[in-house]
Write the structure tokens for this entry.
Amino acid sequence: MTTRRGLLIVISGPSGVGKDTLIKRLLELDRNLRYSVSCTTRLPRPNEVDGVDYTFVTRQQFQDLIDKGAFLEYATYNGNLYGTLADRVEKARANGHDIVLKIEVQGAEQVRKRVPDALFIFVVPPSVDELVRRQTKRNTESSQDMTARRQIATSEMEYSKRYDHVVVNDELERAVAQILAIIHNAREREIEGKTRESQT
């Protein structure tokens, strides 16, 4: 029996909407999910661990990876570079694991072109006021960064209509259950499709 090729699950949403917390819970509840650690040129926040939250690299190292064609996608966000290493994603999918990418909308557009069968989920806050409250509470950025992120978030929300699913993160466990249901349905559709192919 051949190993099922894993799904590629793209999760996007404005800064402060709770993507990290959602993904952490998803990984706890579904053992087949794997998180793709992105590369970034930004400095680590307090409590962030290199190789776990992000792979932190210099701009020159990031440029070298671009020159080698190592990225599935990469983009500039608020002055910093972020990218997903293609080989990390491919290895996980080839081993039958469903891999979760947490990327912003620029990167998601690149993935959409290169991996049309990916599953795209956009996470939104209950309201913009609630998003601003969460961003302020996080208190990890300067007021200048906060203003920039707020402007980015407003424009990002416009992209939600391009995603397969939009999930409101109003209550963690409810939002997690909704995302898990979306992933399980996608797995079932893929298995049904493979079964039909084998019967023809």
Observations:
- The chain is about 45% helix and 20% strand.
